[in-house]
Amino acid sequence: MKVDDVPVGEGRSLACEGEQVAVFRLRDGSVRALGAVCPHRGGPLADGLLDDRVVVCPLHGYAYDLVTGEETTSGGEPVRAYAATVGADGEITVDATLP
Amino acid sequence: MTVLDDAPTSTLPALVAITKAKLVVIGNGMAGARALEEILRRGGGDLFDVTVFGDEPYGNYNRILLSNVLAGIEDTAEIYLNPLEWYADNGIELRAGVRVVRVDRFARVVHADDGTAMRYDRLVIATGSRSFFPPMEGMWADDKNLTEGVFGFRSLDDCAAMLKYAKTARTAAVIGGGLLGLEAARGLQNHGLAVTVVHATPTLMNAQLDDTAGGILRRSVENIGITVHTDARTKAVLTEGGRTVGLSFADGTSVACDMLVVSAGIRPNVGLAQRAGLTVERAIVVDDHMRSIDDDDVYVVGECAQHRGHVYGLVAPLWEQAIVLADHLTRTDVSAVYQGSRMATKLKVAGVDVASMGIKAPEHPDDEFVQFSEPRRGIYKTIIIRDGKLVGATLLGDTSKVAFLIQAFDRGLPLPEERISLMFDIGTPATEVGAAELADDAQVCNCNGVSKGALVACVRGGEKTVTGVMAKTRAGKGCGSCKSLVSQIVEWAAGGDIAVDPSANWYVPGVPYDKPELMDKIRELQLHSVSSVFAALAPEGKEDAQSKMGLASLLEMMWADEYVDERDARFINDRVHANIQRDGTFSVVPQMKGGVTSVEQLRTIADVAEKYDVPMIKLTGGQRIDLLGLRKEDLPAVWADLGMPSGYAYGKSFRTVKTCVGTDFCRFGVGDSTTLGIRIEERFQGIAGPGKMKLAVTGCPRNCAEALCKDLGVVAVDGGKWEIYVGGAAGAHIRKGDLLATADDPDTVIALTGRFLQYYRENAKWLERTYAWVPRIGIDKIRAVVVDDSEGIGARLDADMQKAVDAYVDPWSEREDPVTPGQFRTSLPLTVLPQVGRR
Ligand code: SRM
Ligand SMILES: Cc1cc2nc3c(=O)[nH]c(=O)nc-3n(C[C@H](O)[C@H](O)[C@H](O)COP(=O)(O)OP(=O)(O)OC[C@H]3O[C@@H](n4cnc5c(N)ncnc54)[C@H](O)[C@@H]3O)c2cc1C
Ligand code: SF4
Ligand code: FES
Questions:
Q1: Residue A74: per-residue pLDDT
Q2: Pairing verdict, β A49-50 and A31-35
Q3: Of B4, B87, B282, B468, whose CB count within 10 A is highest?
Q4: What's the start-to-end Cα distance of chain A, in Å?
C-alpha cells in the first residue's frame, strides 16, 4: 500500500500477514500503525479522528497513543503498536515483529 | 441501659427501658416524621414503644415535591422519604390511613376512626394544615364534597386527582397567586392546559414580595404563557350539570375553566386539640420546648403549632422544631429551647428563583434601603439594613448571593461598607466566602433537609464531583433552587481537588478561547481551515483530535462556501455521511421532508433494502425510515439506487421537521402543518450547528407532532396564527420550549426560524443544545434579539443564514468519485484488504 492511499490526517486499515493493522498518516507526512481493532469493544480505529499524538476511537471515544498504543483517557487496555515507515517509492512498510 | 428517672416536670413513672413508655404520634407528614427521625437518632427506639397514626394511606413523603409530581417532572414513587419498610425496620407501628378522632387527655387515650383506643404516655401532635376554601357559591357539591372539577393542592391524593382530571380538561383556573398557586399553575400548564391565575390583591406572592418584585414575577410568569388576573375578587364557581365551567368575579366579569385549583391559603388542623381542651389561637399554642402550654405530656410540631405568636408554613422551621422536641422528649437535652425561626426562604416558583428574608420594606426612617431592578431580565434585589445589620432582603431571578445574605441575616454578621457587594460579586467577598462562612449545621437543601456539614462529609468521604455529591445526599434534587450553592460548597470543601478548570469555558479543549473570542480571532486572522486554526491559535500550534469536530462545525458556520473543508477534521459520520454503529457498519436515513412520503419513495426504499440485504428497516422517532447495518463500501451505491437526498441523521446539524396531518386531513387542524414543515425542512436542510436541531410543526394545540419539546416547534393556533416555541427537549433532558413569538403567517415563521437558528449557531457552545442554551441566555434576551431586533443585527443574521442555505449541497451526491482515497473502504471487518510487505 502506498502512502498516498492514506489521506493526510486520516487512517486506513490493511492486513499484514493475517493481522489487522490501522495505518495513520499524520499531517507532517510521517506514518504510524496500531492494531486496527479497538480493545474496548472492537471499534474501527482507522475511522477515528487523530492528531500527532493519539487516535480517538469513533465508537466510545477511547484514545490511543500512536507510538506506544497506550490508552490515554482512562487507562484502558492498550492496543498493539507497530513501527511503520515509508520507503522512497512511497510504499508503506509495517514491522509486525516488534513486541 | 438508659434509665429514665427524676424527670422534673414529668408524670412519667420512673422506668427502665424494658417497660418502654408509649409514644403516640398523630400525623405522619413532614414534621411528624422528621420529629420521629430525630427521636430515633437520640436512642428513642429504646425508650419508647411508638405508634404513628397517619390519615394518608402512605408512608411519609416529601410534600414539597408535590409541585414536581404535578408538573410531571417527578414520579410519585420518587418522593417518598420513608417507605413503609422503614417503619417496620425501626420497630415503629404505622397506622396508615387511620385518622385520630378524639384525644382523651385525662385517660391519656387516643381514639381513631377504625375503633382503636390506644393509651399513651407521651403524645406528639403533628397534624399540619389543610387547604382553605373561601366560602363561595358553587364551591361545594354537598356538605363534604367539592364540586366536580374543584381541587385543593395539599396531598398526594389531591395531585393524583388533578392529574387525572387534567387529562380531559383544556383550561384551568387557579385561585391564589402565592407560592402554591403559581406552582399549581405551572404544573397544570406542563400538561398542556391553558391556565389563568386569579389573585385577590394587586401583588403576586404578596406575603414575600413587595409590589415591584411582584410585578417582575408577574412578567416572568406571563412570559411562560400563564394568564394572570390580579385584584380579582372571585364571587362564585360557575357550574353546569354539577361540573365546574368557570369563575365569576365581583366586578361582573367571568372566566371559563374546565377545572379549578383553590390555593387561597391554609388552615392548621386544630379541631382535635381544641376538643381535647388545649389552648388554640391561630394554631395550638406551645412553649419553648414545643409542648402544649396546657399539658406537659403533649408535644406539638409543624404547621399546627403556634410558637411565640408565629405559625410557620415552610419546612425549614419545622426541622428546627423537631430537633428541640426530640432533645426534650428523649431527655437528651432538657434545656433545649426553640427560639423561633428567622424566616429566610429560597424557592423556585414557576421556574423563577426567589429568596426572601426578614422584612419586605424599610420600616424606620433610618433604615438603609438598597434596591436594584432590571425588569427585562426578570431581576430584582432589595436589601434593608438597620444599625449595620441585615434585617431584610428580597432576591428575584438571581439568587447567587443568597448564601451570605442568609448567614448575615441569621447571625447579624458585619456587612461590607460597599453595600452593593451584598448583591453582586464585584471583586469583593467572592461567593466561595459565602460557602466557607456558612455554619456547618446551616441547611442548604430545604427540600431534602441537607446541611452544609452533610455535603462536606460526603466530599471528605471521597466524592469529588458536584453531581456525585448531589446523587449521594439528594441535595438539589427537590426544587433545584440550591444547586449553585451546593456546587459552591462542594468546590470549597474539595479545596484544590476540584481545581478551577480554566478550560471549562473554552469552545473546544485544544484552543484556549471561549467562543466569542475564538470567532473574533478567526475572523481577524482570516482562518478558513481547521489546521490553520491550530497553527495560529493552539498552544505551540499543536493540533488536537478532540477539538477537530467542533472547529470544523464552527468554521463551516462562519465561512459557509468559503470554508476550506479538510476531511480529516471530520468525524467518521461526516466523512461518509452515515451514522457509525456498534459493529462498524452504518445506517442510512434518506430525507423524508415533514415525515411525508410517497409510493415511489417507499418502493425505492424497499428495493434498496432488498438489494443490499439490509438487516433492519425501522421507522425512526424522527418520522422517517432508517436502513441499518449497511456496509461502508456499499454506501455510494445505496445512495445512487435511492436517488434521495441525505436526511442528515448523523451530524450535529439540522435534522428533521416532524409534522402532523394538520388541515389536510385532521378534523381539528387549524393550520397547514405539513406544508409549512416541508418548507422549513427544504430551506434549512443540512445546516451545521453546535448541536442537533430538531424541529416540528403541528396543526393545532393538541400537538401531535410534539412541537413543545423540540429545539424549535411551531403550533398552529386558531385565527391563522402560529406559536413558535424554542429550547424544548425530550431526550436525555426534558424541557418544554419557551414561547418565542406568535407569528401571523408561515413566511414570518420561516423568517424567525432562520434568525433564531442563526443566533443559536453563533452563540451556543459546542454541543450545547437549545434546551441548555435558551435558558442560559434567557428567553427575554433571545426574543429581544430575534423578534424585536434590539441589537440591530437582525438583517445580518438573516443574510448569514441565507449564505448557509445557499451553500447547501446534498452530501450523498459525493458518490461518483470518492473525495479521499479509500473514503468508503471498510475499516472492519477486514476481509479484502490490500496487502503490504513485511520486513
Ligand atoms: C434512529 C433513531 C432511533 C429510532 O430508531 O427511532 C436515533 C438513533 C440514535 N440517536 Fe437519537 N435517534 C432518533 C431519534 C431521537 C429523538 C426523537 C426525535 O428526534 O424526535 C431524540 C430526542 C429528541 C432530542 O434529540 O432532543 C433522540 C435523542 C438522542 C440523544 C440525546 C440528545 C440530548 O442531548 O438530549 C442522543 C445522544 C447525543 O446526541 O449525544 C442520540 C443519539 C443517537 C445515535 C445517533 C447514537 C450514536 O451516536 O450512534 C443513535 C444512532 C443509532 C444508529 O445506529 O443509527 N439521540 N434521538 C432516531 C432517528 C431520528 C431521525 O429520523 O433522525
Ligand atoms: C405543593 C406544596 C409545595 C410546597 N413547597 C414548599 C417549599 O418549596 N418550601 C417549603 O419550605 N415548604 C413548602 N411547602 C410547605 C410544606 O410542605 C409544609 O410546611 C410541611 O409539609 C408542613 O409539615 P407538617 O408535618 O406540619 O404538615 P403535613 O406535612 O401536612 O403533615 C400533616 C399530616 O397529618 C395528617 N393528619 C392530620 N390530621 C390527622 C388526624 N386527625 N389523624 C391522623 N393524621 C392526621 C395529615 O393527613 C398529614 O399527612 C409546600 C407545600 C405544598 C402542599
Ligand atoms: S435511545 Fe438512541 S442512542 Fe440509545 S440505544 Fe436507542 S437509538 Fe441508541
Ligand atoms: S470500541 Fe473503541 S472506544 Fe469503545
A1: 67
A2: unpaired
A3: B87
A4: 23
Query: Does the pLDDT of residue B577 top 80, yes or no?
Result: yes
In B660-737 the beta strands, taken as DSSP E runs, fall at 693-698, 712-717, 721-726, 729-730, 734-735
Ligand 4 mutation target, pool A50, A62, A70, A73, most atoms within 8 A of CB: A62
For chain A positions 11-70, those within 8 Å of chain B (CB to CB) are: 11-17, 20, 22, 27, 36-37, 41-56, 58-59, 63
Q: Whose CA is nearest to atom 15 of ligand 2?
A: B314
Q: Which residue's alpha carbon is at the smallest distance from atom 38 of ligand 2?
A: B127
Give one DSSP letter per residue of B134-199, joined into a string. ---BTSBSSSS-BPBTEE--SSHHHHHHHHHHHTT-SEEEEE--SHHHHHHHHHHHHTT-EEEEE-
A63 CA: distance to closest CA in chain B (Å): 9
Calpha distance B237→B137 (Å, rounded):
6
Q: Which three cell numbers stand for residue A17?
A: 500477514
Q: Following DSSP, what letter does each residue of B388-423 receive, concatenated? A: TEEEEEEEES--TTHHHHHHHHHHT----SSGGGGT
Q: How far apart are CA B779 and CA B377, in angstroms?
A: 9
Closest CA to B576 of A85, A91, A7: A7
- The residues lining ligand 4, judged by C-beta closer than 6 Å to any ligand atom, are A 38, 40-43, 57, 59-62
Strand B80-82 and strand B729-730: the pairing is unpaired
Q: Among all residues of chain B, which has the CA nearest to that of A19?
A: B830
- Give tens-digit pLDDT for B309-322: 999 988 888 988 99
Decide: B479 in ligand 2 pocket, CB within 6 A.
yes
Q: Which residue carries 513486541 as its cell?
A: A99
**pLDDT tens track for B763-796:** 999 999 999 999 999 999 999 999 999 999 999 9
- CB B495: neighbour CB atoms within 10 A? 9
- The beta-strand segments (E) located in B282-367 are 284-286, 298-300, 305-307, 344-349, 352-358
B549 vs A46, A49, A55: nearest CB: A49
Residue B498 binned pLDDT confidence (cut-offs 50, 70, 90): low
Find the mean pLDDT for residues B27-34: 94
Q: Summarize the confidence of residues B529-551 as an average pLDDT.
A: 94
pLDDT, mean of residues B675-693: 96
Pocket of ligand 1 contains residue B655 by CB under 6 Å:
yes
The stretch B519-543 carries a mean pLDDT of: 94
Q: What is the mean pLDDT of residues B282-304?
A: 96
Ligand 1 centroid distance, CA of B732 (Å): 10
By the 8 A CB rule, do A7 and B820 touch? Answer: yes
In this complex, do A15 and B838 lie within 8 Å of one another by their Cβ atoms? no
Ligand 1 proximity of B183 Cβ (cutoff 6 Å): no
For the ranges B11-20, B351-360, B465-474, which has the lowest average pLDDT? Answer: B11-20
Output DSSP code: residue B369.
Answer: E
Does B501 have pLDDT greater than 70?
no
For residues B185 and B731, which has the higher predicted lDDT (pLDDT)?
B185
Q: Is B817 on the interface with A (CB under 8 A)?
A: no
Q: pLDDT-derived band of residue B480, with 50, 70 and 90 as boundaries?
A: low
Give φ, ψ of A35 to 5 degrees. Answer: -55, 145
Distance CA A66, CA A83 (A): 10
Who among B542, B566, B825 is closest to A9 (CB)? B566
B557 by Cβ neighbours in 10 Å (0-12 / 13-18 / 19+) ranks as buried
Phi, psi of B393 (to 5 degrees): -160, 150
Instruction: State the smallest CA–CA distance between residue A49 and chain B in angstroms.
Output: 6
Q: Whose CA is nearest to atom 8 of ligand 2?
A: B64
Assess B767–A contact: CB distance below 8 Å, yes or no.
no
* Claim: this prediction has a pTM higher than 0.80: no
Does ligand 2 come within 6 angstroms of the Cβ of B657? no
